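Notes from hallway chat w/ T.B., transcribed later so I don't forget. T.B. wanted the structure written out for a chain they're using in a teaching module, and asked if we could keep both sequence and structure tokens in one place. Agreed to drop them here.
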Amino acid sequence: MIPFNELKTIHCFMLAIGIISTFSACHSDDSLIEKSNLNEERIDQENPPPSIKSLPVAPVTFLVGGEKFISYSSPLVKGSRVINTLNQAEAYATGNIIFTQKNNLQNSFKTERYNVTKVGDNLFSLSVEAGSNLFETYKKLLDSDELEYVEIEVKYKGLNQDQVPQS
């Protein structure tokens, strides 16, 4: 018969071996998982998935009262942020285009797509429908032989008209 003290020692020794083997088995499993993750990362780095390349947005420039404005929005629509290039003041496009006609011709721009309002003697405001490309409409109006003066209306953010920075 084995004495009790020796039995305790053998039991502790067996328990220690069991714990050590469990830790080493877990460590080797973790090691295998880490190795497979590393291999997957290497594969991903060697063959990256195709990505969508972002196209640069060409800035839109236009004149308002002889001052140059620029917008990085594409397309330029009502509410687009614009910047006065002379004094870097921030403004937004109102969605209106102001124009005058030569010889007080009858307004030929009344269509379902535009709302034209007379704002003064031979001075009109054309409002484009929401989401319409304001700059394309502006260019078409500039090319018209019937019109004398065409400009996109802008409002400065947070300022009354008399507080607009002068350049």
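Follow-up for T.B.: The radius of gyration is 37 Å. Might be a good example for the class.
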